């Protein structure tokens, strides 16, 4: 996997939701595939903080996504 891809990408729910067509690929393209350090999910994961599966990379919660 290229260094530009987030280290959590393969296990991240954002990838799952995008692969299933439940979430627009813009999220993956703008955060996951460019290892965007502004991703709130990434920051929380690195700090060992619990966060819901339906939290988007910008920290907002998408209530339409199953948790």
Descriptive terms for the model:
single chain, about 70 residues, Uracil-DNA glycosylase, mainly alpha
What overall geometry do the principal axes of the alpha carbons give? globular
β-sheet strand percentage: under 5%
* Helix and strand pattern: HHH
- Helix content class: 25-40%
End-to-end C-alpha gap: 27 Å
Q: What oligomeric state do the depicted chains represent?
A: single chain
Q: What summary fits the major beta sheet?
A: none
Q: What's the number of domains? A: 1
* Low-confidence segments: none
The computed structural class is mainly alpha
What is the count of helical runs? 3
Strand element count: 0
Question: Using only CA atoms, what is the Rg?
Answer: 11 Å
Mean pLDDT: 93
Overview of this protein structure:
The chain has helices at residues 13-19, 26-30, 40-46. With 67 residues, the chain is mostly helical. The protein is globular, with a radius of gyration of 11 Å. The N and C termini lie far apart (27 Å). The protein has one domain. This is Uracil-DNA glycosylase.
